[in-house]
Amino acid sequence: MEMKQQLDRYRNRVEQALEHHIANQSAAPLLQDAMRYSLFNGGKRVRPLLVYMGNQLLGGNLQAADAAACAIECIHSYSLVHDDLPAMDDDDLRRGKPTCHIEFDEATAILAGDALQALAFELLSTPTHDIDASTQLRILTSLAQGSGAMGMVAGQSIDLSHVGKAMTLEQLENMHRHKTGALICSSIEMGALSSGQATAEDLLALNTYARHIGLAFQVKDDILDIEGDTETLGKPQGSDTEQDKPTYPALLGMAGAKQKLALLNQQAHASIENFGDAAQPLHWLADYIVERQY
Predict the structure, then answer these.
(1) 25 burial type by CB count under 10 A (0-12 exposed, 13-18 middle, 19+ buried)
(2) Most buried by CB count within 10 Å: which residue of 37, 141, 151, 235?
């Protein structure tokens, strides 16, 4: 219960910060409405949580992590808006609500995603007394690499180019290490950097942890796409199967996918053992990812 309360505080913190930054963000009211709709639609805020956890693990100041927590959620939200578009996955439902292009229109959804991406980098590049300029630049670089053509966007491209095509397990993991994992790695790296205390060894251990939970997140999503239901998932159950997308259950069978998930969970826990009790929130999050129902 204490852990849940702490994570709820982190969620409330990023919600309030996002509210502050989105206010009067656009000169076009419709665009601002679409940005707000996409940001505040019931997301789990896993990536901002990782930012705050990385910061606190190394004895940082939460205020120094706020911009990174907001920026990562802006990037994640923009990616979902674009992912749902007719040219991508063509989804009508996201977290139990109409997707942005359904609630508004396709052009507005594209522009809302563009604006959220720009806002993320504005937040990270705005001068601040909480982080020195060289660290701020490292945080910016982490997000750019995690979200761009070497990270999330590359993963989405690989995904779209393999719809209806066979993939090996190695190819599937490569896709998801980019599409989902890269931004998760950036989340905890940005948080650690914001503490001003991160060593190279710290960053390596946290990157290993993030790689494991990032892949576990996707394996669990693939399992839920089969075993979940539309009401709980907040999106159409079986959509990956219907679109003939490569998934872990399709390659490994359901039992094999669950074994893979358990192994990734064990590896995530092992990678942060050297941090001792300070890493308990990260251990909790690793378990949450594999046990969640949506």
Answers:
(1) middle
(2) 151
Dihedral, CA of residue 253, residue 255, residue 260 and residue 263, to nearest 10: -170
Across the chain, mean pLDDT equals 91
pLDDT of residue 4: 83
Q: Is the pLDDT of residue 28 over 60?
A: yes
* C-alpha triplet 242, 87, 224: angle, nearest 5°: 35
DSSP strand pairing (97-98 vs 93-94): antiparallel
Asked if residue 281 lies in contact with residue 7, where contact means CB atoms within 8 angstroms, the answer is yes
226-268 confidence digits (pLDDT tens) = 886 655 545 555 555 555 678 899 899 999 999 999 999 999 9
Confidence band, pLDDT 50/70/90 cuts, at residue 293 = confident
Pick the closest to residue 80 from 125, 35, 118, 50 (CA basis). 35
Cβ proximity of 215 and 183 under 8 Å: no
d(CA 213, CA 155): 16
CATH fold label, 2-291: Farnesyl Diphosphate Synthase (1.10.600)
Q: How far apart are CA 224 and CA 238, in angstroms?
A: 9
pLDDT in tens, 147-159: 999 999 999 999 8
